């Protein structure tokens, strides 16, 4: 008889615990992240019940256990990476939409504790590197940076980025840092209130600060179970990248000699190829040439969203249609771009004739510089840009080498780039 009573009691306790867990799961799905109680005119809101408070606290503590039940389990995560001046801002604009959370260069403003920055010695540290473009500190530590980006892409906050940077500043190799990270580190909440929206299609992060470390990005993602649905690896003809960097005054060789330009090219293109090899064969990796996006913005945007199994937001589709119209010689967006008097801003993504940029580097780089980049980036040019010289020659001969392009010339160039890119996308 006593055994029956004990068994019945255990059953009742189990059912009660299951009921509580189901209730908490529903609460998290409906109102995550946990709200902070603020003063309102409503008496009920001003004095929430102890049951509501304790449930919210329990939901927060149980978050890792029931994360798969939350609505964001179906949200897409996208990371856009590429070198500066390769068209990453234009690519990022594909995800500037009401139903997406888009994070633009979050590492630029990110800061570490002051003590860590002081411990960093650029002369001896082999893991982190100086970065003069940073706002609050002047170092880049790749594993910590990528951990921060993964947290951001999953709308969460943990101590793992700080764990990683502490090790990297002490010159612990990146692979060892990844092994030491605690995959069960407690979550401290969500980072962006917009992540609580039930209709959110996904979260996209755009960065130019992790080049050459894509293998570690995938390793982190897999170890910690933080899926990345699509990594868009953006690239651009390195000669055009160099010309563009001279126009903005950063990220250039030490001088314009052959040797300095060659060293710059080998470093940048070496990182490009390392990332290409790390992503090759992965279903969540996509190599995207800026030239293909510029020539056919709508087609490339639609292909990206097809990979994500999502519809293109109407505002994004309209924006890309305007870019295509301008590249084909239309004047539907004349004067747009934020530069005033029809001149695009150097960091803007206003509609402009992107096809015209294909030949611009020929006028802005000396033959010595062109030869140095061709040598230092030989593998990148052979692998991804074997067709560019042909396109440039045809375009230059058709417009007489001038800056102006006729509508027929632009359409012809666009058709050639589209034909090449269609074959690449099928592979």
UniProtKB/TrEMBL annotation:
Polar residues bias (residue ranges): 409-419
InterPro entries documented for this protein: Gal/GlcNAc/GalNAc_ST, P-loop_NTPase
UniProt signal peptide: 1-19
Pfam families reported in the protein's UniProt record: Sulfotransfer_3
Spans annotated as Disordered: 321-345, 393-427
Record carries keyword Hydrolase: yes
Alphabetically ordered keywords of this record: Hydrolase, Signal
Gene Ontology molecular-function annotations: hydrolase activity; N-acetylglucosamine 6-O-sulfotransferase activity
Keyword Signal: yes
Compositional bias ranges of the Low complexity kind: 325-334
GO biological process, one term: sulfur compound metabolic process
SUPFAM superfamilies for the chain: P-loop containing nucleoside triphosphate hydrolases
Protein name per the record: P-loop containing nucleoside triphosphate hydrolase protein
Source organism: Tribonema minus
